[in-house]
Request: fold
Amino acid sequence: MSHSTFLSMRALTDALVAKLKAIRWNAEAAFDQVTPFDVTDLELAIQELAATGNRVCLVVIHSEQFEHEVSGHDLHITHSVPITLLLADKNFSDRQSAFFGDQRTAGALTLRDLVLGLDPRGNPNFLGKLTAQTYVAPTNGMPFIVNQELRDKLSGFGVWSLSCDVIGGAQQMPLGDAPIV
Reply:
């Protein structure tokens, strides 16, 4: 008998977005907008979001990975999904504040700290348990680097790219006794 705890990609995306929307900065939502986006044109995504809000987060799902192992007459499969969060803030009068933050602007690095659970005020932590069967772990982060043309269009924006793995979900299925020919 087969048993699976895999999440559908839609359910996984919805859980990621809901958890990010729960993060607070100065008693308000940390992000004006949290949006899933495909990986095909991240520069376009940043431009679109630049027009919609100050503090934004793009959730980009790159792929999915499966690992498998045969144990006796069963096949065991585990699942992981690499994602990138593009954490952006804007301050048209001071691009450095958009990246580093100030009294009125959270800044991309503060948004990164909030997502990583480094807020001493007890913000919900994005990392760790996502659902009963999945968890989120960071893998690396860096400034989001764009070409000069896009940098001119995004003047006043600071963007941090945080890569994570969503790990979890498993499937177990019997292999049967004989091959089908």
Residues 3-64+83-166 form one domain. Helices lie at 9-21, 42-50, 95-100, 108-115, 148-153. The longest helix spans residues 9-21. The first strand starts at residue 3 and ends at 4.
